[in-house]
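SEQUENCE WITH STRUCTURE:
===
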Amino acid sequence: MPQSAGLLLYRRTDAGIEVLLAHPGGPFWAARDEGAWSLPKGETDAGEDPLDAARREFEEEVGAIPPDGPFIDLGTARLRSGKRVLAWAAEGEVDPSTQRSTEVPVEWPPHSGRRIMVPEVDRVAWFAPAEARRRLNPAQAVFVDRLVDELGLEPDSEERAG
């Protein structure tokens, strides 16, 4: 089963922390919002250190150099597909208006045999933890909870991911 690695960037604001999430590019995802976002992540290459993969994928999908750390190990989550996602968090700053992503070919419309190039990520945005949990793929919401716990912050009144 493939394995992905990702980096959850966070920043401190007067209102608390915010996390940077990525929205997948392409026509399939264009009208989807809640439950569609992800931390910047991608598959690890054979023999590649997962944290190195997470940093590489962040740069490819966000178009910014990831911070040098320190990194908080957020553990693993399993997606509905069975794929494992390993994640780390780091404090840093990115301006979402500068986001640029590598492009990938996708078949569109499905089963047409026609390939179009789309960005892996079409936008990134900062979200407070409660909003991030709503926007994230449900299996990845646990990473926000783990970050809040690691930083010793009070959980918000929203029901937290399991």
In short: The first strand starts at residue 3 and ends at 13. The first helix runs from residue 50 to 62. DSSP finds three helices and eight strands in the chain.
